[in-house]
Amino acid sequence: MKQFSTMKYAEGLRGQGIKGLREFEIRNAEGEQRKPKFLPTLCGVGVPAVESVFLAAEQRFFSAFRIPLSAFEPTRFAAWAMIFFLTAVNLSAQRLNISDVNSQSPNEPGFDLRLALGGTVNSDMSVAQRDNRDYPQTNINPLFATSVPFSGTVSYESIGFNPGFRFDFAPGYRLNQWINFEFETGCIYNTVESYTITGNGTFTGVGGNPNLNGTMKLDAQGYLLQVPLMVNVEFSYPIGDGWRPFIGAGGGGMFQKLTVSTISGTINYQGDFNQSNFMGAWEAFLGCGYQVAPGFDVSIAYRVDGVLSPDFGGYTMQNFFTQAAEFEMNWRF
């Protein structure tokens, strides 16, 4: 009988895309002994195969549009969060096939784990101060560019974001069926959509119309990555038939990394902004869960996070908010 090397074959899938994925499934179907036992599976496919297909599709997409792959490195957070989340769904589904699930009742104290994935919408990030000085300011460089002089007065600057995604990993401890504590981390990712500036004056060294008279909204490229580190408390109330509405809040900190590169529209220039911080933050949430099986719940939740006056290298922003709608899975141990 031929020997089958899963890792070697998965490496060989790079560059083969969906065709390679089909070959992987067929070859696994030839015999149970050839199916990798040491890897979690995602819809019957080993995670290395999923990685190979993802990398192949990623390379083809960016090369087709002549976009440098390095410029979109952060988008891999989304793909890997999805892979991790769906792998957990797959493993939980396998667990639910076992009739003798051994887990504690939600009425008893014990540890639990929450995984969640959802979409996010950010508020605009408005600049409150630059170098500890309030607006309006005169003869300052436009936001995100140290090499683009501006002669005149700037009274307002802000950043707009596209909708993004959020992934949560939150181990916790429940005191009883009503109160649960958790430590929450994960990642929140949104791309930059726009840069808005209000004032009067003239830009130097830009393409397009260099004159600013009033408000100018420009397209922008970049991203905001946030990593929450929160301690939350959740209050829930079982209402029968497995349903459990809940509400909660928490506090802690938020790591933020903001980059902005190309600015385009009425004027065009290359941004050079790449700053990070760690600021105080809070979170509030509500939702409703349903017990699918002993020790396993699913839920839908709405979450809002606030960061208190985030500061990025001398740019002090107004209080910043992120809203999210999530699908969650909860295990009790």
Mean pLDDT across every amino acid position = 77
Q: What's the total helix number? A: 4
Low-confidence stretches: 1-51, 65-72, 96-103
Task: Give the end-to-end Cα distance, rounded to a whole number of Å.
Answer: 42 Å
- Which structural class is indicated by helix and strand composition? alpha+beta
CATH topology-level fold name of the largest domain: Porin
The beta-strand count equals: 17
Report the biggest beta sheet as strand number plus sense, adding barrel if it closes: 8 strands, antiparallel, barrel
Which strand order spans the largest sheet, edge to edge or round the barrel?
3-8-9-11-12-13-14-17
- In the CATH scheme, the class of the largest domain would be Mainly Beta
What fraction, in percent, of the residue positions are helical?
A: 10-25%
Radius of gyration (CA) equals 24 Å
Beta-strand level of the residues, as a percent range? over 45%
Q: What is the count of distinct domains?
A: 2
Query: What is the succession of H and E elements?
Result: HHEEHHEEEEEEEEEEEEEEE
What's the architecture of the largest domain in CATH terms? Answer: Beta Barrel
Global geometry:
elongated
Please tell me about this protein's structure.
With 333 residues, the chain is α+β, with helices and mostly antiparallel strands. Helices cover 18% and strands 55% of the residues. It has four helices and 17 strands. The protein has helices at 6-12, 17-29, 47-64, 76-96; strands at residues 41-42, 45-46, 110-122, 125-130, 133-134, 137-138, 150-161, 164-174, 179-203, 207-208, 211-236, 243-264, 267-293, 296-307, 311-312, 315-317, 320-332. A hairpin with a 2-residue loop joins strand 12 and strand 13. It starts with 5 loop residues before the first helix and ends with a strand.
